[in-house]
Specification:
alpha+beta, about 190 residues, about 45% helix, three-stranded antiparallel sheet, 9 strands
Length: about 190
Amino acid sequence: MYGHERFYAYRRICGQKNGKLLLDEVLESPVHYQKMMKILHEFDESIINIAKSGNGTEYMILSKKYRKALPLNAYGDGMKKALILLAAVVKAANGILLLDEFETAIHTSAMNHIFSWILQSAQEMNVQVFLSSHSLETISKVLRCDSALQDKINLYTLYHKEGKNLVRKMNCQEAIKAQDDWGVELR
């Protein structure tokens, strides 16, 4: 696939089609819906519900703070990005999910919970996730977000040595030790 077709396929896999968020599979499953509500509460504890609008063109969020439901877009890009990640994990069940710079738009205060949720859900849904990031803070948060999953996390870094491109693999504990004890910047 090239150009527009490739972009469309990527957005469809990540829970979007023609620029619109696709949460239908999440809204149809009580288990996924409950997980989504936990993620939404990371951004705003007063959220009660999320549903498609009457005409089905957008998602509306009902909150204790406002007199009527507001469109998802009113809540900002971080919340929308978290929901895109949720939809992507659900869509990738029993498969592989590639997420490049997945942390973009997610506030650092919500990262631990969202990253932990991504990894836990991926394990539950048999999804192998490949995350890429240049952010030291993000990599550190992923390595530490859920101690119960650390034995399932590996870190790969690319480096250039003697004219060759090489790959270094570390398990989660080795990566944390490299950061904490040796001050290695893992990007």
